[in-house]
Request: fold
Amino acid sequence: MGKNVIDLGCGTGRLAIAAALLGAKHVICLDIDRLALEVAKKRSLELNVSNVIDFVKAWVPHIHFTNIDTVIQNPPFGVWKRHADLVFLTAAFNLKPRTIYSIHKANPKSREIIVREAKNKNYEAKIMSRKHLIIPPFMRHHYKKRHYVLVEIFKFELKDRI
Reply:
């Protein structure tokens, strides 16, 4: 509550709107897709949280914000474009928030890379949950009615400086 939050790759704004509903002071809903941002804005108006959310059309690797307390993200899993999730995670680490919540496809090699990158950026990585996520066919290359993916929800906390 009362935090400055950014949702990287917000899509239609589910996580950003949830943060606003849970009492975030200010939320930045950031995505490169203008149409997704329009949907997010419409939903925020319907749920009466548009007054605390700013909608920003930008490409994640090129962002520069200050005073971000928390990053939330459900980045691309890196299946279609290899390491796409690491681009988002690196951008999140570079914002230097106290806390990052990020959803990644569960896979031992990816987990090893993610934990190593967190450590290199002075973050402690914890897996909060492992769940099956249902992905509906919303991209052109999706051909299944429902695709089940095992994901891990990470929480990264910035270690105190000595």
Summary: DSSP finds four helices and seven strands in the chain. The beta strands are 4-8, 26-31, 53-57, 70-73, 99-105, 123-135, 147-158. Residues 4-158 form a domain with the Rossmann fold fold (CATH 3.40.50.150). The first strand starts at residue 4 and ends at 8.
